[in-house]
Write a structure and sequence with these properties.
The protein contains six helices and three strands. A hairpin with a 2-residue loop joins strand 1 and strand 2. It is α+β, with helices and mostly antiparallel strands. It has a three-stranded antiparallel beta sheet.
């Protein structure tokens, strides 16, 4: 009989292409719970529509920190993998962070197409809610 503990040990791998690099990310599908997504969605909904997209970055980093188990991203060439913390995720370029998030969430949503990450430097939270591959950024009533 499967246990919740055994489900949390299972990893899936995503290859996140960013510019001319590929980051391999091992993530726990069982950690992507309804509770985590609802908490994330509520936090996004609490942000004002005109808030800069960077206001959502710490929220996204917090969600991903609980889902990502390992990766091959290092601080320096040949170094050990960076620890997976909110702080290390916050150091990633924002479009790489969005690509990591999209690679994980899109793999759980059949029918969504992969695409390149948009330049988010001048966007607001309202505009990101409508980006392809960012379904959990959409504002939901309730």
């Amino acid at each position: 009989m499967p246990s919740l503990e055994s489900l949390y040990r299972d990893l899936e791998w995503a290859e996140v292409k960013w510019r001319d690099q590929t980051v391999k990310v091992g993530w726990r599908p069982a950690a992507l719970t309804s509770e985590a997504l609802i908490r994330f969605q509520n936090q996004i909904n609490d942000l004002p529509d005109d808030a800069p997209v960077t206001a959502a970055v710490p929220l996204m980093a917090g969600l991903l920190m609980d889902i990502i188990a390992e990766w091959d991203l290092t601080e320096k060439d040949g170094g050990p993998p960076l620890p997976i913390t909110t702080e290390s995720l916050m150091k990633l370029p924002s479009d790489l962070l969005i690509s990591v998030r999209s690679s994980i969430l899109d793999s759980t949503s059949p029918g969504e197409s992969e695409g390149t990450s948009p330049d988010t430097s001048q966007q607001t939270v309202a505009s990101v809610r409508s980006l392809p591959g960012t379904g959990s950024f959409e504002r939901h009533a309730g």
